[in-house]
Design a protein that fits this description.
Strand content: 5-15%
Distance between the termini: 35 Å
Largest sheet: 2 strands, antiparallel
Number of strands: 2
Oligomer: single chain
Strand order of the largest sheet: 1-2
Number of domains: 3
Structural class: mainly alpha
Length: 156
């Protein structure tokens, strides 16, 4: 429902009209507008206050299904919880021993590999699987000093 309302709003009102309506709402309207679960906060002071209440806004209801479908439980998909803090502590502990030079070398080598693949494919590169995930996986391996049985298994 909220997606439909948002699409309707953006289809009817141009960006200039949206700005004008927002200014009028801030000056004369309520501090917030509510459409079911969608809340529009209008005044800067209220926006700042809302953004400082990060424990009120959860990741799981929005992303848990997608994150689990792709890779199972993942630290970036966790809401504040004892499990998140335990995982974060482990990650930070492992990061203390990381050698920045190894990470830099892995990044440079990974980028060169991606450019080589792109050159072989007429300048085309799969940005998600052939660049982002590949570079992130290789960099994480170098950063944490881990290695899987092969690269596909390691990236999974």
């Amino acid at each position: 429902m909220k997606q439909l309302l948002l699409q309707l709003f953006t289809a009817i009102f141009t960006p200039g009209v949206q700005v004008m309506l927002a200014r009028l709402a801030v000056r004369f309207g309520p501090r917030t507008l509510s459409f079911g679960e969608l809340l529009v906060v209008l005044r800067w002071e209220d926006v700042r206050e809302v953004l400082h209440r990060d424990q009120d806004f959860l990741i799981a209801p929005i992303n848990a299904e997608r994150i689990t479908a792709v890779s199972g439980p993942f630290i970036l998909g966790m809401d504040r919880s004892p499990e998140l803090f335990r995982q974060r502590s482990c990650v930070y502990s492992a990061m203390r021993d990381a050698d920045p030079k190894l990470v830099e070398d892995a990044l440079k080598a990974g980028i060169e590999d991606c450019l080589s693949v792109a050159r072989q494919n007429g300048g085309r590169l799969d940005v998600v699987n052939g660049y982002a995930r590949l570079i992130a996986g290789r960099t994480a391996c170098a950063f944490f000093g881990v290695k899987g049985p092969d690269e596909p298994a390691t990236l999974r």
